[in-house]
Amino acid sequence: MTDFEKLNTILIIRLSSLGDILLTTPLVRSLKKKYPHLLIDFLLREEYSDVYKYNPYINKLYTFSRENQTSSDLTLIKYDLIVDLQNNFRSSGIRKSIKTDHLRIFNKKTFDKFLLVNFKINRLKNSEQVPVRYAQVLGNFELDDEGLDLFTGDRNSSIKKNEKRYLGFAPGSRHFTKMWPEDSYMNLGKKLNEGGYTIVLFGGKDDRDLCRKMSEQIPGSIDLSNNNDLLQTAVNMNECLAVVCNDSGLMHTACAMKVPVLVFYGSTVKEFGFTPFRNKNLLLENYTLPCRPCTHIGKENCPKKHFKCMLELTPDSAFAKLKELIHK
Fold this sequence. Notes:
Blueprint: E1 9-13, H1 18-22, H2 25-34, E2 39-45, E3 60-65, E4 69-70, E5 78-79, E6 81-84, H3 89-96, E7 99-100, E8 103-105, H4 110-119, H5 130-136, E9 165-170, H6 182-194, E10 197-201, H7 208-217, E11 222-223, H8 230-237, E12 243-246, H9 249-256, E13 261-265, E14 281-285, H10 308-311, H11 315-326
Parallel strand pairs: 1-2, 1-6, 2-3, 5-7, 6-8, 9-10, 9-12, 10-11, 12-13, 13-14
Antiparallel strand pairs: 3-4
């Protein structure tokens, strides 16, 4: 067990990706609130720096890029403790170049995930959500009762609350098998529009074409996808009654803004620990398929060629769940 009263400096490493980094924020906040004297530095990939850009619990933010690697300043510092929450080949190389008295490394439960994906042997039934598992790296350290953090600075929303009732759609994902089909999103959007809601579309650079296409098909919808401006997306999401999304980084972004989420789970399952953390939510997934999960991160196509995990989640069922979520 770590005696934090005797520590002064901590470096936390989580290089990627968006959702994984957002899930570290409860640990950073809880540490700083319980031990205000601690100086907590954080290292991440530069494209995700907005997650901690305005975070008041961080002492210094360091960035990693494939071109420039990490800041040379890090090699000049000796930390009382380094916490590697990435635990891969790259983070291993980084931490070995930095002086420290103590090291803690996140257990990714790789073998358990392998068993569940390939043999459907589920040793993760009682596994905690990832933020709690991050905290367990430090022994018996417990998180506070709050959810994720995302501080947006002085950003203002692109939409204003008025008589309209906004519902967010975040239809994108890095992997095809984690995406509810675009036709299903569009059919749900039309149904909601008929019910008096205005759909607001969210996404990053890779989602621009998808969001534009959906906006053209959903009457009255607003396309607020952008070139990976996370903080602008976050403040815009905050104007919505709820966000409909896939198991993605933008799902965790909505949670960080305390916006209720309706989430579709296809090729992945909640046992992996990446479910909405301490935020109002409802999940939609197909429990009838013996092939789930087929991956722990996502695939470019359905290995069984039927994609029933997503196709059988109908717009009508999503509509009913969304109404339940809004009035929950």
